[in-house]
Specification:
The protein has 220 residues and is an alpha/beta fold. It is built from eight helices and ten strands. The two termini are 17 Å apart.
């Protein structure tokens, strides 16, 4: 079981411009995979397709053995909320909610906020934010906000964690701290991690590396 792509392609615009082509790969549960490539190589597009945030123009994607196109919108939304965690370069926290409430957003969507609250508090504590659970995003540093976003991505204990340049907007110290958290999520929680990054040091932390060149996969 895992995420399996076969012949994935993505084109946009009119006339169509091809962003991805012929992508075939599989990511098993428990893997740590780095997705590398220059800016504009298609890393974010591929990550969004693997995470069902975007649809391919061609090819197929299987989610734990089931073709993604066979999911109803409600089934796909539930799969995304429960089994997939997302971390982006920008944290996308809701400014009117405090840190704990932001972490609990996926659980609230699933009707599990009360049950997941102890885990949310535990995650904030583990990430050095135990005393800041009631602070609004504007009262937190950039690195702290990104840690809240990672806790939000983990609160449903997803099987897959997709991180799109999560250190791109952070300084070196905060970037390293975020990578340490991702490694802990992989080793302690058993989540498969797919990390899109342009940083060779962070890519080296993964057990496998996939490299994109102009929308074509060069490594498996």
């Amino acid at each position: 079981m895992g995420l399996e792509a076969e012949g994935l392609g993505k084109s946009v615009g009119d006339p169509a411009v091809r962003i991805l082509g012929g992508i075939t790969l599989s990511v098993e549960r428990g893997e740590f995979v780095a997705l590398t490539g220059r800016s504009g190589s298609g890393k974010s597009t591929l990550l969004h397709i693997l995470g069902t945030l975007d649809r391919p123009s061609e090819g197929s994607l299987r989610l734990d053995g089931r073709e993604s196109s066979s999911f109803s919108p409600a089934e796909l939304d539930a799969f995304r909320n429960r089994r997939l965690g997302f971390v982006f370069q920008f944290h996308y926290l809701i400014q009117e909610l405090d840190a704990l409430e932001n972490v609990l957003l996926p659980a609230r969507r699933a009707g599990e906020a009360a049950r997941r609250r102890p885990l949310a508090e535990e995650l904030l504590g583990r990430f050095g934010l135990g005393g800041k659970a009631r602070r609004l995003p504007r009262q937190l540093s950039g690195g702290e906000q990104q840690r809240v976003a990672i806790a939000r991505a983990l609160v449903m204990q997803p099987q897959y964690l997709l991180a799109d340049e999560p250190t791109g907007a952070l300084d070196s110290a905060n970037g390293t701290a975020v990578m340490d958290i991702l490694k802990e999520a992989h080793s302690r929680l058993g989540a498969a991690v797919i990390l899109a990054t342009h940083d060779p040091e962070f890519a080296a932390m993964a057990s496998r590396r996939l490299h994109l060149v102009d929308g074509v996969l060069r490594g498996t």
